[in-house]
Backbone:
């Protein structure tokens, strides 16, 4: 199986043709992923998309049904977890309840001498700002402190790749945002490659160099946040990263500016990107311009406001168009917002709309 | 309404658990007699409160002196505790891998495995021990099988020995060790052993440093559930043990049924209680704290 | 599944079942010698059916088991309710201790002490004393099983019923009782089997004319291995297995529904 895949660019960690079946259920299917040294990758997707299974395959808790995992050039597919130079920070932390914080941190350091181990534990405690917490039991710590112990424990063996399963999932909102910054800074400082699994798009955007979106066991798109937001591979990715209006149509031709023209229920519309035959335009609500009179730029789409929601920094509107569909429009609050029932004219810069294949 | 709930069961328990034990203590301090009932003094109902007074006042420590001075009872106590302790250790040794395997089995198998473990426990204790007689006797299946395999030259002299009693104890009490252990192990977060493996611990180190320490409450509960009733076990030493296998349960039985010495039998009962009271209190405290914690 | 786990399970279950299986197989042995196979036969079942004292003993055991299990279920459930709902009443710890004591107390002590009680109070030994003794033995088991179910109960269900206007008695009858019913059945079954199985306590507290099945079997077992007992055992094992399997099948179906 693996031989059918072209070797990707040389990276620190390479998964090639990776697949995992549980009985009849395919948790991960034909997945290729390359991680560069020092890179911070987020795996993003809803629960059950296979992102945690992928993490467990890399950590060695599951044996892949197909494919290989290579780390620094060596094939580690068959290595048991305790022989892999990768470590995992578990969701809800999996701190040993019967051991002190220091003993938790020292657990992975059994190869070191007593003094070296003690010194390393002290370093780790300082690293996560928990000096003096060594003798405490995990159940006496706050959620944020436990999270930091788990992180320090996973870093103790200086892994080449650190796997983090929903590392901030158990924290409350305020603490999560603060911790995102800390985690990012720590990763930069250590230069360790991180793979973080999350279901929160905002978290993925805040943390990662690259985001891999998973759906149904497949990696459907991987890239930096901007490319995923601006040029989603399919409806799923487009919807995952934020509100989006989807306009189906049939591809007609290309205009001189390189944009694709489509016939839609609203007439001919243009967008960037390519598709064969049927396509879908993804249009973000904040790209849409709204005015009371027809404007000169782009298409002119008249519609009626059916709902407005004031959100402080912006106003969200729903506008019913000629074909009966309602678009989401996000307008700045500085201008006076139209009222429900008012007729408005929508337009958008075609180079900010993205055309995707209709299927998938 | 809520306050009345405990009244009925409490009265029942007081009448049929607490009072009998107190009575046993009292009669262990009575004098044997050739009468019905065979002890003195007897509670005189017609004398009312005074009858109770004179019944409770008369204390005779002879029975405990007999227990202390006669080597028979000392040996029986010693061998009861020793056999129960050895059997408990064997059970811990073979019960742990079984409980661990059950807890690690696929989830849909687990209820069936538990049922498989319980079914023999629900079939007659007497019959299960009886089954071992046919296996262990010199012309029995074990000896016949081993001789056929050429492993032994002559039949094993294992029935009516301490070895047979140990086999019987291990066999009969295996579910009592496995089930509490399994209950703890199945609740153990599977990520904890995984985290240990992730941090470089091989399977052996994972077991000793993570799984076993976390399973200790189950091991303690299992050990006590086995040890306490084993100390007073009657059927197993009676059917599988030899005439030299003295265990307190058997001594009590023969004092009561053969010698009709009720006060001495009561004294033996009190001795058994004293031997197991430590573990019992431990067990109760354990259960109590667990119940409170579970609320 | 790991190979070691398979071995542990196979050996463990094999150890548990082999003696019972051997017993069952040899109950169909034509030979009177228990260890020599003389061909397939059901003759010992014939002998068993003709054994009048054994049948009488089985009848007594059944009556005692039914009566004592019913008593144990009522009092054990009350005890479980008291522990779960009664708050911190005075003597709760002692109460708890008295419930657990019969679970672990060596049977010889339970038997002897109950006998001393019955004799001391001038009660004639017989069916009644047997039922009381077995109900006391079963009570603790019932309290543990029902208590576990009560603790797992979602209290908001009862609160919802009360909120919808049900008086406490109606809440109990229409919500609590149906929810704990499977555990009551399991507890009754366990108390029933414990009574049916008990030899030691029965030997102390029963009198002439109230010989139970285990007492009868024991007196024969003492004389050595006997194919008729194998046949009786097989019937007993078969019955209990059928009950347990039905029970677990029923509760399993309930759980998945």
Residues:
């Amino acid at each position: 199986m693996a031989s059918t895949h072209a070797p990707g660019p040389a990276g620190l960690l390479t998964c090639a043709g990776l697949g995992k079946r549980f009985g009849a259920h395919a948790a991960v299917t034909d997945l290729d992923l390359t991680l560069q040294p020092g890179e911070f990758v987020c795996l993003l997707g809803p629960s059950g998309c296979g992102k945690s299974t992928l993490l467990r395959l890399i950590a060695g808790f599951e044996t892949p049904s197909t494919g290989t995992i290579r780390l620094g050039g060596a094939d580690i597919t068959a290595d048991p977890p305790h022989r892999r130079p990768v470590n995992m920070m578990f969701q809800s932390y999996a701190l040993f309840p019967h051991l002190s914080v220091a003993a938790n941190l020292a657990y992975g350091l059994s190869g070191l001498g007593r003094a070296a181990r003690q010194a390393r534990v002290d370093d780790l405690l300082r690293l996560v700002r928990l000096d003096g917490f060594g003798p405490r039991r995990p159940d006496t710590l706050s959620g944020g402190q436990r999270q930091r112990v788990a992180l320090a424990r996973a870093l103790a063996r200086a892994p080449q790749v650190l796997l983090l399963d929903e590392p901030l999932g158990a924290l409350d909102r305020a603490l999560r945002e603060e911790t995102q910054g800390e985690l990012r800074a720590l990763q930069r400082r250590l230069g360790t490659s991180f793979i973080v699994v999350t279901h929160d798009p905002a978290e993925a955007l805040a943390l990662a160099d690259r985001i891999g979106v998973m759906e149904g066991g497949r990696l459907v798109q991987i890239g930096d946040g901007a490319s995923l937001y601006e040029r989603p591979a399919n409806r799923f990715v487009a919807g995952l990263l934020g509100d989006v209006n989807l306009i189906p149509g049939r591809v007609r031709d290309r205009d001189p500016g390189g944009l694709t023209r489509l016939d839609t229920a609203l007439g001919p519309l243009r967008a960037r990107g390519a598709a064969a035959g049927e396509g879908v335009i993804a249009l973000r609500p904040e790209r849409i311009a709204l005015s009371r009179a027809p404007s000169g730029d782009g298409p002119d789409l008249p519609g009626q406001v059916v709902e407005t929601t004031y959100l402080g920094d912006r106003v969200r509107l729903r506008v019913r168009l000629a074909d009966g569909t309602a678009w989401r429009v996000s307008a700045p609050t500085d201008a006076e917002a139209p009222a429900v029932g008012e007729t408005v004219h929508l337009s958008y810069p075609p180079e900010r709309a993205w055309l995707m294949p209709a299927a998938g | 309404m809520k306050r009345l709930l405990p009244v009925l069961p409490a009265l029942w328990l007081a009448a049929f658990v607490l009072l009998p034990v107190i009575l046993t203590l009292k009669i262990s301090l009575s004098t044997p007699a050739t009468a019905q009932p065979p002890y003195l003094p007897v509670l005189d109902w017609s004398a009312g409160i005074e009858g109770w007074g004179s019944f409770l006042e008369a204390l005779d420590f002879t029975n405990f002196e007999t227990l202390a001075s006669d080597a028979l009872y000392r040996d029986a106590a010693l061998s009861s505790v020793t056999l129960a302790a050895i059997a408990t250790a064997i059970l811990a040794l073979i019960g742990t891998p079984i409980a661990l395997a059950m807890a690690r089995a696929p989830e849909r198998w687990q209820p069936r495995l538990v049922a498989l473990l319980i079914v023999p426990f629900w079939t007659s204790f007497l019959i299960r021990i009886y089954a071992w007689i046919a296996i262990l006797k010199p012309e029995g299946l074990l000896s016949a099988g081993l001789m056929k395999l050429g492993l032994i030259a002559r039949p094993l002299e294992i029935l009516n020995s301490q070895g047979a009693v140990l086999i019987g104890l291990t066999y009969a009490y295996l579910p009592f060790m496995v089930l509490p252990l399994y209950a703890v192990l199945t609740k153990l977060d599977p990520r904890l052993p995984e985290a240990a493996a992730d941090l470089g611990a091989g399977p052996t180190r994972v077991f000793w440093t993570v799984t076993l320490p976390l399973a200790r409450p189950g091991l303690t509960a299992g050990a006590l559930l086995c040890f306490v009733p084993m100390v007073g076990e009657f059927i197993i030493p009676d059917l599988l043990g030899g005439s030299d296998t003295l265990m307190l349960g058997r001594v009590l039985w023969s004092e009561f049924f053969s010698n009709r010495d009720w006060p001495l039998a009561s004294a033996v009962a009190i001795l058994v209680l004293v031997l197991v009271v430590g573990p019992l209190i431990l067990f109760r405290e354990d259960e109590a704290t667990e119940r409170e914690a579970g609320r | 599944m790991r190979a070691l786990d398979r071995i542990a399970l196979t050996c463990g279950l094999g150890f548990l079942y082999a003696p019972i299986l051997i017993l069952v197989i040899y109950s169909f042995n034509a030979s009177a010698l228990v260890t020599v196979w003389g061909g397939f036969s059901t003759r010992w079942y014939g002998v068993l059916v003709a054994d009048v004292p054994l049948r009488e003993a089985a009848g007594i055991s059944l009556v005692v088991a039914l009566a004592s299990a019913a008593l144990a279920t009522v009092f054990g459930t009350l005890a479980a309710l008291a522990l779960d709902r009664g708050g911190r009443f005075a003597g709760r710890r002692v109460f708890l201790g008295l419930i657990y004591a019969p679970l672990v107390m060596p049977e010889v002590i339970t038997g002897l002490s109950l006998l001393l009680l019955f004799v001391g109070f001038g009660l004639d030994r017989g069916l009644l004393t047997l039922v009381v003794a077995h109900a006391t033995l079963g009570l603790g088991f019932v309290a543990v099983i029902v208590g576990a179910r009560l603790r797992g109960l979602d209290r908001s269900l009862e609160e919802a019923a009360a909120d919808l206007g049900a008086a406490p008695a109606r809440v109990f009858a229409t919500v609590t009782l149906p929810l704990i019913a499977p555990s009551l059945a399991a507890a009754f079954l366990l108390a029933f089997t414990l009574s049916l199985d008990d030899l030691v306590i029965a030997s102390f507290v029963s009198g002439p004319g109230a010989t139970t099945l285990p007492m009868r079997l024991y007196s024969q077992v003492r004389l050595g291995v006997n194919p008729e007992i194998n046949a009786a055992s097989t019937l007993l094992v078969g019955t209990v297995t059928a009950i347990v399997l039905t029970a677990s099948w029923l509760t399993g179906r309930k759980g998945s529904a």
